[in-house]
Design goal:
single chain; 196 residues; mainly alpha; three-stranded parallel beta sheet; 8 helices
Amino acid sequence: NPIIGTRAFGSHALQVKDHVCAFLNGMSTHHVMGCLKHFPGHGGVAEDSHETLPVDGASRDQMQANYLPPFESAVKAGVGTLMSAFLDLNGIPATANRRLLTDVLRGEWGFDGFVVSDSNSIGELVAHGYVEDRKDAGKKALLAGVDMDMVTESFRFDIPELVEAGEIPVAVVDEAVRRVLRVKFLLGLFNHPYRT
């Protein structure tokens, strides 16, 4: 991908997988938790996600062969957090893709960390016509498996209203909060919030 370029560990899934795991291991020895991004990968797009919503038509086989191995290896190595990509994968934005964020990431791979949205990717669900408004965007993202909303503030303002209205079970919110708090606990941030 010419857009990601030097922001990636390489262009071959197996090579990237080794670099990612080594990098995460190095970070953890210094009590730093990595955030692997952008799940499920930006490898097959030519558009710059800072300017538009990239569209990727990769098949499941292509995803499994070329995109997912580094992420799966990082999950198996204990990565604590992942960032959802700002891209459209076969008609479903990654930030609202329950199959990837919940079924694959948590169900198949056993990921027990938390997922943070890419910057404003929840709000961009509205801008790119996937949903009608910010409230619906937050609902789709949370129900898909995003635990933390970066920038949009839908989780802060809209999710409480959706819970009150019975549109989102409080258990879904509790689980998202639990995931974030668990990672903070594992890092020791409750005992040493300003660790250096």
